[in-house]
Design brief:
This is Type IX secretion system membrane protein PorP/SprF. The chain is mainly beta. The chain is built from one helix and 15 strands; from the N terminus they run αβββββββββββββββ.
């Protein structure tokens, strides 16, 4: 793609940031297998140590399209009901790059024989760097003269309730109204990040002894913006193979595949196909997920589809 096309895309991204930062929090098609990324209260809920790596390449074929890598670790702290998690994310889009580092803590209260209610807190921050010169080599406009390099603190919170067959939760990834741009356009314009609310839910149906079906949903609510809704349906065969479909409202449809390669290793893959007119300019989005679980000795694994 030539520089003029790249510049057009960059301007589009910039216009979006006048209301809220160019890409909100990084989005994942396989969020349901890395739930800590959307709700800190999920930390430790699996009952054992979990390490997850996820890479997402969005809009293949478009220079400057979003590209994200995430590495996370979460574990329960003994039998205290406390969970601890760390999440490191590298997110690139157009001329901007952002590195997130968050620490998540949860506390779980047993509400019944099978019910658990968890409260989560996220503390951390991210380093934002925007270099407008990237991809613009001829006659850069004054619009692109002021680069951005700053640290933005993050404080988030969430509530998560789960039973063996279903779960639901709500989270605010960042309660701070941080400002992303200061005097960028010599007019004192600033873009302030608005509160986001993430709502998740899912249910596992036993279709037979060997087949499980799980529909799930994620809704992202932001004041002044359309609600973003992700719907998915996955089928698990013999606790080993997983296939599914997902749909993101007014954005894309996705195919999902998963393999339990060993007792502790799960491999997931997703392919998103854009449903808007923008599909004519890219070859889709690819996402690869690796999740490794470390089980306690002499403790049987309790099958979980979430």
């Amino acid at each position: 793609m030539n520089n003029s096309h790249f510049k057009i895309i960059t301007i589009i991204f910039l216009l979006l940031t006048l209301e809220v930062y160019s890409q909100q929090d990084p989005q994942y098609t396989q969020y349901m297998y890395n739930t800590m990324s959307v709700n800190p209260a999920y930390v430790g809920s699996r009952g054992h140590t979990t390490i997850t790596a996820l890479g997402r390449t969005q809009w293949v074929g478009v220079d400057g399209a979003p590209d994200t890598q995430t590495l996370s670790y979460d574990t329960p702290l003994g039998y205290s009901g406390v969970g601890l998690g760390v999440n490191l994310t590298n997110d690139n889009i157009g001329p901007s790059s952002e590195i997130y580092l968050d620490v998540n803590v949860s506390y779980t209260v047993r509400t019944s024989d099978e019910g658990n209610l968890a409260f989560g807190l996220k503390l951390g921050g991210r380093h934002l760097n925007i270099d407008w010169s990237k991809g613009i080599s001829e006659n850069p406009d004054i619009l692109f003269e002021s680069n951005v390099n700053k640290f933005l603190p993050t404080i988030g919170a969430g509530i998560y309730y789960h039973k063996p067959k279903w779960y639901m939760g709500v989270a605010v990834p960042n309660i701070l109204r941080t400002t992303h741009y200061d005097d960028t356009f010599n007019g004192g314009d600033e873009a302030e990040e608005r509160l986001h609310f993430f709502l998740i839910g899912g249910y596992v149906f036993d279709l037979s002894e060997r087949i499980k079906f799980k529909p799930a949903a994620l809704a992202k609510v932001v004041n002044g913006a359309p609600i973003s809704i992700d719907l998915s349906a996955n089928v698990l065969f013999n606790e080993k193979f997983r296939v599914g479909l997902a749909w993101r409202w007014d954005d894309s449809i996705s195919a999902l595949l998963g393999l339990q390669a060993s007792k502790g290793l799960h491999i997931g893959f997703a392919y998103d196909l854009t449903t808007t007119n923008y599909r004519n300019y890219n070859s889709g989005t690819y996402e690869l997920m690796l999740r490794y679980e470390i089980f306690k000795p002499n403790v049987l694994k309790s099958p979980r589809f979430f």
